[in-house]
Amino acid sequence: MADLLSPAEAVKRSGFSIDTLRYYERIGLLDRIARSTGGRRQFSEDHLEWLGVLRCLRDTGMPIADMQRYAASAREGDRTLEERLALLTEHATRAQRTIDELMRQQQHLNEKIAWYQAQISIQQGDSA
């Protein structure tokens, strides 16, 4: 049997808090979590790999409901490949729109920064 990880080790390796791991299990994003004889969760390498997928989805702004749909679809196996592809494609499109908007906003910030730097330079030139 593969080595199982304690909750503390899963937290350390996944970067998620223990509360997040518990929440993800409760809402169905994590399943088949083994328990020790004392009832403590035990995580596998497969769980950590899946947590990497969840991290990507979460960090790119996928709503929890879509993450749940994706997880449920993944559990159904290859017959849902097209559904998962559609979910990820839609999400990638939304993520790209967000990136594009952030880049526009960053450009605006850079213009404001340049303006303030110019104003300060002018003031310092007047003071000299």
From TrEMBL:
Residues 4-73 form the HTH merR-type domain. Keywords: Coiled coil, DNA-binding. It holds the Pfam family MerR_1. Residues 85-119 form a coiled coil. GO terms for molecular function: DNA binding; DNA-binding transcription factor activity. The keyword Mitochondrion does not apply. This is MerR family transcriptional regulator. It comes from Kitasatospora indigofera.
